[in-house]
Write a structure and sequence with these properties.
Layout: E1 4-12, E2 21-28, E3 31-38, H1 60-63, E4 65-68, E5 73-76, E6 81-85, H2 91-94, H3 97-100, E7 109-111, H4 113-125, E8 133-134, E9 141-143, E10 146-153, E11 160-166, E12 171-175, H5 192-201, E13 205-208, H6 223-228
Parallel strand pairs: 3-6, 6-7, 7-8, 12-13
Antiparallel strand pairs: 1-2, 2-3, 4-5, 9-10, 10-11, 11-12
Length: 229
């Protein structure tokens, strides 16, 4: 009988709100089977860090060599990466990817339509090429032992999504930056049906953005910006 373990490793984005990069590892019989990465963004330096334009996540963990029982060889942890998922187009979730893409083994990248355009243009700035896979909502994607679905969400940038990650251990709801905007200026409101459905089916762990959650009241819709203009 196979025994599975799920590890979650944050390489940025937990302390502070930038440099987002999260690693999910699925182990089968104590052997690393699959790795899934969510986001790969830059961080913004403090005022006292003079001369530093931005910072990027440290991926030395992914470059470590580990023993792989099936092949009986030592392999880089990054060799088990099945996909990189980018949740939305903000710099702190996407813009470190050109720096790490080759070291990560040039994995397949999946994201929404608008975000894919941002990423492809960012790679052009580095004189690199990348073909980003545009996702479809309410469709299942299989990345090794990870079964992934994407949920429409709203934020201060259009085409934002949350990620539902189902594994043999359980289901993770990965919910980065968002605001529940019922009247977004572009696109549809959050998909509350899919969110509720995920909850009823059972969530092992919720990883959620919580910026500003201690303040009472509601955040205004992004549609207010248009009225200001």
């Amino acid at each position: 009988m196979n025994s599975y373990k799920l590890h979650f490793v944050q390489l940025g984005g937990v302390i502070g709100v930038t440099k987002n990069m999260y690693v999910y590892e699925l182990y089968e019989n104590d052997a690393l089977k699959d790795v899934l990465i969510v986001d790969c963004g830059i961080g913004f330096p403090m005022e006292k860090e003079l001369g530093v334009d931005f910072v990027i996540p440290d991926i030395s963990y992914l470059n470590e060599e580990i023993y792989d029982p099936p092949s009986q060889k030592k392999l880089r942890r990054a060799s088990k990466i099945r996909a990189v998922i980018l949740t939305h187009g903000h710099e702190d979730h996407t813009s470190a990817l050109p720096y790490h893409y080759e070291a990560l083994g040039k994995p397949q990248v999946y994201t929404s339509k608008l975000t894919s355009v941002f990423v492809e243009h960012k790679f052009k700035d580095f004189c690199q090429k990348i073909r980003v896979n545009q996702i479809q909502y309410n469709k299942g994607y299989i990345f090794g032992g990870f079964n992934v679905r994407f949920i429409k969400m709203t934020h201060s940038i259009p085409d934002t999504m949350h990620v539902l990650i189902t594994t043999p251990v359980g289901t993770i709801y990965h919910g980065p930056d968002f605001k529940l905007d019922l009247t977004p200026p572009f696109g549809s409101p959050p998909d509350f049906y899919e969110i509720t459905k995920a909850g009823k089916e059972g969530i092992l762990c919720l990883l959620s953005d919580c910026l500003g959650s201690e303040r009472p009241g509601l955040t205004l819709s992004e549609s207010i910006v248009g009225q200001t203009f």
